[in-house]
């Protein structure tokens, strides 16, 4: 296990074709000065899509970040942490469709807490429509997280995933953030971290935010019926089986047997819980691994086809295009030319 002594930071990447006439700066333009956070490290990016900027304040055990998007057209942006990261994220404006690594699709809704574990690879893919977005987030070192391990079993799972550098993303239940939580976020924005008690006060407010989240999590656990919990555990078992065996032939009757339910109930329940049918999730796992192999290895497309569980290279290319809007070969070229910022 690895003890991450410093919290992770989120990095953003754009496909090469998106970056035409794009400019990066480390100061905010005058037009956006009112969004400035005192003492924060700033990264500002603009291009034909509009602009976005990220501001971060870090201490030994935590990072506080704030991201604003001002988009004149739809944008797909890839995001990855600097190292395996557990973070609490709050979307304050807008809704974000995200392909969260191997976890699968998720919707980050406005005014909600989202507690997430993300490995550096595969990158998460955020799909943003034209409009404005505002996101606040916190990431934590291992030592900071240890004090919360007894609060909920699922929290220990994401902590253990970080420690083991798991390649599998995970997400705890999302809850509406109360007005008190929104107020705390904006209070943090106003603190100068260079003041004598600046970072001490930020840390105190972070504990308050975490307390609000875990109160909601514990309350939810009290209201979940034993039947619903048993059903979700069975579906989670099916999801994990698919994730670990995607390269093999997987038949739906086999999954029904694993879940202890008929095919109709399995597909309906799985889609309600994970926003995709078992077949769609299997396809997603295969395509995500294929994308990783295209980017990080020199294997031929035909070899990758079979390695991830497809039996027909032409069909593989069709499915890949459906997910990424480009062929596997073009995706490899785009990733090779993309610049990190």
TrEMBL record:
Keyword list, A-Z: DNA-binding, Transcription, Transcription regulation
Organism superkingdom: Bacteria
SMART domains: HTH_ARAC (SM00342)
GO MF annotation list: DNA-binding transcription factor activity; sequence-specific DNA binding
Protein name: Helix-turn-helix transcriptional regulator
């Amino acid at each position: 296990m690895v003890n991450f002594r410093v919290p992770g930071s989120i990095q953003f990447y754009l496909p090469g074709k998106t970056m035409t006439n794009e400019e990066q700066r480390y100061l905010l333009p005058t037009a956006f000065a009112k969004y400035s956070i005192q003492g924060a490290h700033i990264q500002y990016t603009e291009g034909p899509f509009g602009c976005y900027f990220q501001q971060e304040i870090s201490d030994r055990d935590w990072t506080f970040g704030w991201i604003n998007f001002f988009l004149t057209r739809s944008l797909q942006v890839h995001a990855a942490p600097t190292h395996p990261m557990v973070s609490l994220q709050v979307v304050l404006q807008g809704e974000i469709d995200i392909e969260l690594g191997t976890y699968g699709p998720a919707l980050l809704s406005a005014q909600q807490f989202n507690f997430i574990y993300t490995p550096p690879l595969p990158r998460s893919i955020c799909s943003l429509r034209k409009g404005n977005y505002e996101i606040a987030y916190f990431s934590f070192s291992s030592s900071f997280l240890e004090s919360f391990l007894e609060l909920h079993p699922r929290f220990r799972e994401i902590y253990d995933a970080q420690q083991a550098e798991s390649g599998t993303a995970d997400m705890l239940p999302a809850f509406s953030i109360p007005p008190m939580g929104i107020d705390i976020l904006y209070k943090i924005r106003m603190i100068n971290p260079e003041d004598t008690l600046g970072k001490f006060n930020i840390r105190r407010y972070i504990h308050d935010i975490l307390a609000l989240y875990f109160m909601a999590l514990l309350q939810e656990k009290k209201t979940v019926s034993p039947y619903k919990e048993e059903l979700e555990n069975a579906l989670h078992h099916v999801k994990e089986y698919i994730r670990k065996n995607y390269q093999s032939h997987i038949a739906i009757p086999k999954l029904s047997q694993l879940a202890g339910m008929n095919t109709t109930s399995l597909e309906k329940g799985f889609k309600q819980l994970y926003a995709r049918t078992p077949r769609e999730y299997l396809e997603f796992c295969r395509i995500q691994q294929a994308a990783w192999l295209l980017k990080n290895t020199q294997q031929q497309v035909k070899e990758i086809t079979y390695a991830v569980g497809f039996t027909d290279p032409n069909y593989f290319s069709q499915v890949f295009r459906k997910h990424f809007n480009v062929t596997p070969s073009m995706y490899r070229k785009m990733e090779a030319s993309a610049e990190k910022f």
